[in-house]
Structures
1.
Amino acid sequence: MSDNEMRTPPCRRLRAYTFDPSLATQLETSLINQTVLHVPWEPLEKGPVGDYLEVIDYDPPSGCFYAPVDLNEAYLLAQDGLAPSEGNPKFHQQMVYGVAMTTIQNFERALGRKALWAPTFERDPKTREVTKSGPVHRLRIYPHALREANAFYSPDKKALLFGYFPSVLANPGENLPGGLVFTCLSHDVIAHETTHALLDGLHRYFAESSNPDVLAFHEAFADIVALFQHFTQPEALRHQIAKTRGDLASQNLLGELAHQFGQAIGNHGALRDAIGHVNPETGKWESQAADPELYSATTEPHDRGAILVAAMFDAFLSIYKARIADLLRIATGGSGVLPEGNLHPDLVNRLAGEATKTAGHILRMAIRALDYCPPIDITFGEYLRALVTADSDLVPDDRWGYRIAVIEAFRRRGIYPRDVRTLAADALRWQRHPLPSFYGLVHGLLEGMLNEESRAQRRLTLEWQSTARREEIGRLNEEYKKITWKWIKDNLVGNPAMIGKLGIDLEATARPTIFRSKFDKLPALEVHSVRTARRPTQDGRTLLDLVVELVQRRRGYLDPDRQAEAEKLPADSPRWWTDFQPDFRFRGGCTLLIDSESGDVRYCILKNITSETRLARQREFASARSPSLRATYSPSAAGAQSREPFAMLHRSR
Amino acid sequence: MRTRTPAKKTAKKPAAGKRMTAPRSGVKIRMYRTGLGDCFLLAFPKDGNPRDPFYLLIDCGVYAGTPEPDNRTRIRRIVEDVRDATGGHLDVLVITHEHWDHVSAFHATQAQEIFGKEIGLDALWMAWTENRRIPLARDLQDGRKAARAALRQALNRMQGLADSGTRELVGKVLDFFGGEADGSGAPSGGLGLLGAKKSVKTEEAMDWIQESYGRGKTRYLRPGEEPLALEGVEDVRVYVLGPPEDPDLIKRSDPTGDEVYPKAMAAAIEASFFAACGIMPSHALGPDQDEANEAKEALRVSLPFDETYQIERDRAAEADPFFQQYFEKTETWRQIDGDWLEAAGEFALQLDNATNNTSLALAIEIGQPGRGKVLLFPGDAQVGNWRSWFGKVKLGKRELGREMVWTVGERKVTAEDLLRRTVLYKVGHHGSHNATLRQQGLELMGRSDGTGELVAFLPVDEHVARDLAHYGEMPLRSLVKDLAIRTGGRVVRNDDGAKPKDKQSTLAPIEGAPPLRPASEFLDKATDLWFEHIVAPPR
């Protein structure tokens, strides 16, 4: 056999539950409840431990470990891994690995680069301020960490913790009474939690609740990814579509599927009843009419997030409907009315194909938009702008009206950005800012690498996204951040007009409430990330962007008078550390999308550090948070919220 | 209440001249300044004679973490004062619920013997939830007992693990039960499994009250029952508002929220967590069983997988080098030994809430039936208890509780009606979150311009609550503000440092609310030991 024929396989095939084990016990759904995941091939140790993930199966409440699965065993390779089983912890490890890898793959394809996890932090135990950071190679997964109906991503441990719990339902039809429910066997829960981790790797400040949308966005986004990933599985859709009778144009069946998703993910997700509900009288599923008032009236993160998920799903349905219009005409001879009996299997396949394709597009669109979001303080309106901008960059010709569908769905729910005049796609696109060229920076990044590494690195610098190892990318990223920081300090300080356009302030005269650097006593600047994104466009080009995120932080006080007083203190006053400890942290900065060839700034997505109106809004939000029962007992227990934001968010439901 | 029990002969004679008189008509209310804790003595004129009143005492306790001399020493002074004020005789003792800050005085380590030897008692009133003959009450009590045991175990296991504040939270909830009965309060034994079933001090105090002090004199009160009369006292009746006879209303902190899980499932989840703590709720209470074995058995039946899959934690690194990475020194930040215990925080809050919701909530009406002024003593009732006073509580499609209407004479009386006529409100749970309702509570009482007659008695010591016990919002600032508004500044607090005759309250003014008025201005009398207030019947 020649070497050519001995290439590594493109993927590893692993069996998994399509949804979760509960469907396996019903005759009707048992046949569709097994699926084979095609996970990108990578060398694996037992655990599984690969390049992205390490599964360690420790069950502290039971005081024991479970032996790790070795997916390289010949028998397992030959039969797509272990067969789905609730009673074998090794299958649990296999499934959680498989689904998490699928989610990671979806991210990488959409963003055009390898996924990295958020770095570790050493924090000052008192202020919780980061003192040291380091890269994290693998996300750790604990499939049986908790005895509660909960699963969460721990930003501190860079780990996913899954719980298990006994299930006793009033209607024991679906779960064995007394049986256990394992959250690590739910496709949707795994995808949801993995997404939290991936999003944290990209936008770590999205875990900081600075406005009512931020935590809601985290939950909603995790649901959007899980939901559309779910919809890219043809098994599920085929089964559902085949049940169609009569009016094929009513999209209720897909809505019902999404609704089931919401129910299954239950506590973990935002969705629940936002898309629709089963009418108790008719027993039929009905879609929920969009309520434009709901968004402004809802504050609880899950409920608010559900509005965003529902909007995305709504957009999906409109696009799907447009895409299958021709199929419907063909199938019904133009009458729109189906003949009695089962649908033709070919038609089912074609319909399911359109649905999975649409779901895949929406999924990619949703993830791609992350590079077009501000680094902090995200709002749904800004996410809408990011969606529209990212999509029009890559798919200039919007043949199926994806963008219009999304805008329309958001508008129906009263979600729109603060600062645009009309909701036309053009108006929603981020505006190009008349910023001078950053060619110097792009050049500097190359040169910087050249200075210390050999010339061969040049190739690496350009192509590291696709060929380099993730560990190396992580290291390079840190270098890039340093180079960028230095370039900005060297070139932009003393150019206040320019700096103002970036939403930051680096001058010595900056507001004293902006944190100062220990080294040069000037306003501290965090180069939050420097990454490239390589994405093919619809018309065959490749967009190669540099995504640079800059962040500064400023002290915020609940009392406006105190804020005014603070603004008058000298920047180096010792009182910052005594009687002027801030009540909250206010961040500002920008995301820059820089054309990596010309150095032109294509977009600058701003959150101004000097904005007094935004500061006032955040102050109002921080003051209005109602005290919880937990806070009555212990203010520091309420602080658990900041340590494990996702655990508490799920627990307190 | 037929015969009057004289104080035992060995007793010290009550000091003369300290007797608390009653007004000619109406009632005199004394709030003893225990600090963070409740103690109220009410004097009603009996047979029209203000010098020989009918005495009713509601609770007597102080928060366990209060430093001396404000703890035992002060409580003893207070109980001695109760003895002297009542001439060594109580007509009725009301115990609202089993929390240390309401019953500590009855424990042997505080002032039990003063009550036992020097203060006679005619009748003891308690909530139906304390009656072990009622199956539901027994279930609730056993459930709380199992929860306490499991939480204590969880607390033991948290020793040495990273702290997230949950340990503090669980500890504080257990503090409200006065700590372990042996007084050591220390985590028990190296096994971490012993001592789970030990009783707590609050249980001992409750046992003494029921089994000894109030033996044969106890009356268990049920919500909605016919208003109670006070023997020999004219034109006064006591309405029993709570606790509701519905376990859902007692267990839930907020019955309006939607249900995440069916009840049976919530119980199963709790059981699985408790089993991991070594507590089997079903028979956690058998006194003679071997605790260590039982704990093992509890855990065994709750395991998720067949035992053959298990590799014990302490042998794991040896059994398979793969597991060594979990224990590496550089990897300790990723360990999860304590994370599952975080759920204990929620269970602790549930326990606390379930205990507070067993509070006996009383409305005492002074004057004509259906027209009199009302004193509201809700104990520490939380939302579930409070809402049940108003009749059925809707929860999704279900309705919980029962209709609540009293027929007195020819008039129909409802909770709303009683709250509207309230002139004295004993603020629930030291003014914390969830213990004073707004719409179905404070907004019915007093007036928005503060011109009514309403007075709020707030038994709190903010310094103890915040600085020593590190409670967050106790009292809740926004509630204190609303109280000040509705009462026109007539909020009486245990921690008001003003001397009886001072013209100003020492408590800091609250923005947007009328300044708190000095006690001397609207109260009958105040000393460093108590505040006294008279409520006259309406004309």
Note: The first strand of chain B starts at residue 27 and ends at 32.
2.
Amino acid sequence: MPNDLEIDDVRDVLARDGAQLVEVLPAQEYEEEHLPGAISIPLKTLDESSVTKLNHDAPVIVYCHDYQ
Amino acid sequence: MSPRAAWRFESLDFTDVYDFVPGKAAWLAMGWGREGTAAATPNVGELARRDVPVCRLGDTVGDARRELDESGYDFCLLTNEEGIFMGHLRGDALAGDPSELVDQAMEGGSTTVRPSEHVDALVKRMTKRGVKSIVVTDLKGKLIGALIREDAEKAVEAHQSDDH
């Protein structure tokens, strides 16, 4: 079960070794503005082939715009 | 959207998945940095001055006056022990009894803005209302600094010149 991450804790998890930050919004929104170090995997394209570059055993933190 | 993505990651055999629920809007409102094409245009957080005079609740008006004398500003911002913005001192309040606590002399209810706000729209509002500076706090009310309208106007002009 995924863990919910609040604003007070997000930077602690990001500081963990190998943490991977993923924006799942459409690519255009990512191009305009994203969190430092985030990679773009739009939800529509999220499948086995789009995650090959990620480490399955390291933390993955996903985000969109806000509480959606 | 992010809850679905987080579950999708789990179904793809990722073992340590987090949904950053407050998302990009909250991160930007904390002023924690950003990348992308929009980052070429400074936002409020990037233009806010951090060197403004600050006093803590429990300090005296005399303390605030000393902070001010060294700074060149005509206002002093007040925070609590957690760095949360509580109010400000200016004008007559700074000329009062130096032994009075700032807690009693301060003006509360000041308008604040988030660091993620776009400068051009804010400058228009500040100009319309004759506001020369505005306090910038993060999503949780922690003081970041103050945006000086003159700085913001210059940034908007510079950005418009770059566009032409």
Note: The longest strand of chain A covers residues 20-23.
